[in-house]
């Protein structure tokens, strides 16, 4: 009978037990298809409760390392996770260009949630037309979740959306008119550029450093461009991975106040609690639309987001929400709120944090001696390239060597890109191929680019 060789008792025992089980599967001490001890047998064998073993097995199943079959038992799975796609598997290039959260197997978690939903309540109302802002109960549940991220939100100021992308669409549609200027970070989420084109807006980039937007540059852009709004991502910025300091956030809020500037704050990335980070929305609540989502924190396919709007802007935001989707899907919001209430959302977030930190540690080992920026709770890196590398040229060479990354030109809001750099998204789907892929990037960075052919 399998028993763990040792347990780390510094944290929850069920998590330590799951870690030990996963470790033995990864080390080959347990083989694919091998049946694990019954819950009772393992609990008695190591002196813990049945509930502890149940939670450990459930966590290992969410990670994709075991499968539980009704009436038969718990068995070791093959690869410890889903088969990778689009070049992340055992063949082809290693794709480190996709900014996705660490993968967790969610089959069992979703199945239990849907069975519980079927048992516990009337389902018909979840398929009817609902409130445009989402039900009061769902908004209250999501307000509690936002509180864990450092924002005390009134449910009456909230609109539930189908993810953060819809939230951004709503914000742009509600706040700006064709021809208006929108301030953005010099390197930013590419979807903002598409939205600006869709709404006929002018994108005005603002310089930034490792602490976020430069207040003096923001002040100058406000004077010159007379913008309607600022879009920014203060936490684990995509793509540069910087997190704004508190001082920088206060300076941005003060600048917005001086210039009567609306702010769209995009806060979708993982973090371990508030982490002493006050959202700009809490500093400038009367002019900030705060957008968040569960996709990168709980589950990518859980398309539930939220916009928190100042009362003066709420009606415009609600009308934009009705225009784009009429209402948030009640069934999806119900699932999200159940997971928040029963602790599943918190457990999934904690698991993704743990995987992200392990990936960051692996990257630090393979990229030793190379300067790069990373947020400890997230899995993307920003690596400035040495002269004379250009970002597009480096990305092409990396692809030829079997590694796909994103060049800084993808994110540059002004052409040409001023800082040759690459964004690297660490993926646990790459498995044992991640280390060699990072070694390949490190080797290329240490080289000089080959001379390019040209014509007279």
UniProtKB/TrEMBL annotation:
Pfam family, one: Aminotran_1_2
Transmembrane spans: none
Record-linked InterPro entries: Aminotransferase_I/II_large (IPR004839), HTH_trans_reg/aminotransferase (IPR051446), PyrdxlP-dep_Trfase (IPR015424), PyrdxlP-dep_Trfase_major (IPR015421), PyrdxlP-dep_Trfase_small (IPR015422), Tscrpt_reg_HTH_GntR (IPR000524), WH-like_DNA-bd_sf (IPR036388), WH_DNA-bd_sf (IPR036390)
GO molecular function, one term: DNA-binding transcription factor activity
Region span, Disordered: 82-101
Keywords: Aminotransferase, DNA-binding, Pyridoxal phosphate, Transcription, Transcription regulation, Transferase
PROSITE patterns, per the entry: HTH_GNTR (PS50949)
Record SUPFAM superfamilies: PLP-dependent transferases (SSF53383), Winged helix' DNA-binding domain (SSF46785)
SMART domains xref list: HTH_GNTR
Domain annotation HTH gntR-type: ranges: 11-79
Similarity comment text for this entry: In the C-terminal section; belongs to the class-I pyridoxal-phosphate-dependent aminotransferase family.
Name used for this protein in its record: PLP-dependent aminotransferase family protein
Source organism (scientific name): Kaustia mangrovi
């Amino acid at each position: 009978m399998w028993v763990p060789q040792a347990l780390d008792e510094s944290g929850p025992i069920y998590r330590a037990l799951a870690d030990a089980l996963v470790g033995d599967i990864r080390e080959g001490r347990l083989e694919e298809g091998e049946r694990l001890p019954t819950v009772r047998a393992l609990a008695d064998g190591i002196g813990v409760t049945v509930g502890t073993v149940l939670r450990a097995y459930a966590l290992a199943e969410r990670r994709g390392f075991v499968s539980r079959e009704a009436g038969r038992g718990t068995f070791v799975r093959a690869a410890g996770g889903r088969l990778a796609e689009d070049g992340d598997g055992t063949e082809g290039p290693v794709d480190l260009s996709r900014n996705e959260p660490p993968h967790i197997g969610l089959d069992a978690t979703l199945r239990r949630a849907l069975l519980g939903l079927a048992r516990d309540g009337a389902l018909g109302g979840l398929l009817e037309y609902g409130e445009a802002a989402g039900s009061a109960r769902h908004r209250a549940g999501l307000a509690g979740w936002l509180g864990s991220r450092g924002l005390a939100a009134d449910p009456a100021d909230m609109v539930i959306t189908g993810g953060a992308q819809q939230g951004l669409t709503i914000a742009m549609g509600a706040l700006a008119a064709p021809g208006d200027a929108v301030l953005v970070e010099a390197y930013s989420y590419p979807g903002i550029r598409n939205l600006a084109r869709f709404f006929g807006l002018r994108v005005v980039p603002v310089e930034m450093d490792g602490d976020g937007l430069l207040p003096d540059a923001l002040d100058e852009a406000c004077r010159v461009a007379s913008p309607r709004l600022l879009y920014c991502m203060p936490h684990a910025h995509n793509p540069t991975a910087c997190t704004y300091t508190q001082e920088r956030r206060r300076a941005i809020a003060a600048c917005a106040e001086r210039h009567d500037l609306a702010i769209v704050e995009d806060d979708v990335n993982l973090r371990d609690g508030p982490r002493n980070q006050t959202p700009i929305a809490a500093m400038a609540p009367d002019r900030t639309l705060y957008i968040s989502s569960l996709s990168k924190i709980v589950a990518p396919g859980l398309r539930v987001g939220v916009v928190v709007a100042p009362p003066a802007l709420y009606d415009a935001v609600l009308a934009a929400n009705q225009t784009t989707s009429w209402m948030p899907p009640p069934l999806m919001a119900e699932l999200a709120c159940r997971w928040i209430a029963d602790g599943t959302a918190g457990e999934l977030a904690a698991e993704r944090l743990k995987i992200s930190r392990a990936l960051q540690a692996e990257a630090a080992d393979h990229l030793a001696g190379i300067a790069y920026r990373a947020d400890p709770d997230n899995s993307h890196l920003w690596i400035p390239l040495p002269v004379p590398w250009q970002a597009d040229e480096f990305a092409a060479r990396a692809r030829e060597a079997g590694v796909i990354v994103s060049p800084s030109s993808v994110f540059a809001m002004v052409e040409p890109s001023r800082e040759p750099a690459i964004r690297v998204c660490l993926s646990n789907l790459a498995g044992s191929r991640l280390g060699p892929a990072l070694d390949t990037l490190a080797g290329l960075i240490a080289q000089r680019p080959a001379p390019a052919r040209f014509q007279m």
